[in-house]
Amino acid sequence: AQSVTQLGSHVSVSEGALVLLRCNYSSSVPPYLFWYVQYPNQGLQLLLKYTSAATLVKGINGFEAEFKKSETSFHLTKPSAHMSDAAEYFCAVSLVHSGYALNFGKGTSLLVTP
Amino acid sequence: KAGVTQTPRYLIKTRGQQVTLSCSPISGHRSVSWYQQTPGQGLQFLFEYFSETQRNKGNFPGRFSGRQFSNSRSEMNVSTLELGDSALYLCASSLRESSGANVLTFGAGSRLTVL
After folding, report:
1. What pLDDT digit, counting tens, does each position of A56-75 carry?
2. Nearest residue on chain B to A33, judged by CA atoms?
3. How far is residue A76's CA from residue B60's CA, in Å, rounded to a whole number?
4. B108 → closest Cβ in A32, A43, A99
5. Which candidate in A6, A37, B48, B77 could, as Cys together with B56 as Cys, close a disulfide (CB 3.0–4.6 Å)?
6. How does DSSP classify residue A28?
7. What's the average pLDDT block by block, 10 residues per block, for chain B (115 residues)?
């Protein structure tokens, strides 16, 4: 069975600082991996995806993530935080033997302080 | 291109009632999935429909059901509502990419409150 662990339910950074949101997965087969962002009272917006091509994936709004098979990780980073980045972030894994349904982590709430 | 549209956005029901939620996918998307989001359980997969057939199902009781129409629009129904059914219900439509990945685009959700 696959699972997704997001370390840190709340992360606080200063505006302009590095953003690092951690995601680890467990799977016996190669996964598809995703990061989604959710703003208050909205649905989920896709930030980026790993679909077995390049291991360093660039997404929208300056975010990127690196798939590290040896560490079973898919951490999300952004060099410089902006106030508008404050939101809830979800990592998700998708596998063929689960019919490609997304299995989400519990989420990380990002707070950006001035 | 219009996104995924969910109606209604907000609704309040009482225990024992039933509710129907609607989802219109992105034009050309034939797959529609439903997820439940609660503070306690997080985001959980309900089911997926493709070409009017349920292709995949999560671990929810039979009170939760869905269907898809020939125009790919989907509805989900919850019967005999319980307090614990209060949640944000998210619909997503998707296209299967050449990589094999099923990339979901979500709607804004329907927030159900059960009193």
Report:
1. 999 999 999 999 999 999 99
2. B101
3. 31
4. A43
5. B48
6. S
7. 93 98 96 96 96 94 97 97 98 84 93 98
Under the banding of pLDDT at 50, 70 and 90, the label for residue A3 is confident
Tell me whether residues B106 and A36 touch, CB distance under 8 A: yes
- CB distance A6 to A23 below 8 Å: yes
Structure tokens at A55: 């291991």
Name the DSSP letter for residue A61: G
Question: Which of B114, B103, B115, B109 minimizes the C-alpha distance to B37?
Answer: B109
- Closest by CA to B47, choosing from B106, B86, B80, B91, is B91
What is the pLDDT at residue A95?
Answer: 83
What is the rounded CA–CA span in Å between residue B68 and residue A48? Answer: 28
In whole numbers, what is the pLDDT of chain B averaged over residues?
A: 95
Residue B93's CB: how many other CB atoms inside 10 A?
25
Instruction: Choose among A44, A84, A106, A70: nearest CA to B42.
Output: A106
What's the whole-number average pLDDT of chain A? 93
B104 contacts in chain A (CB < 8 Å): 44, 46, 102
Which tokens hold the place of A29? 């087969």
Contacts of A51 in chain B (CB under 8 A): 97, 99-101
Q: Are strands A108-113 and B10-13 parallel, antiparallel or unpaired?
A: unpaired
Strand partners of residue B44: B36
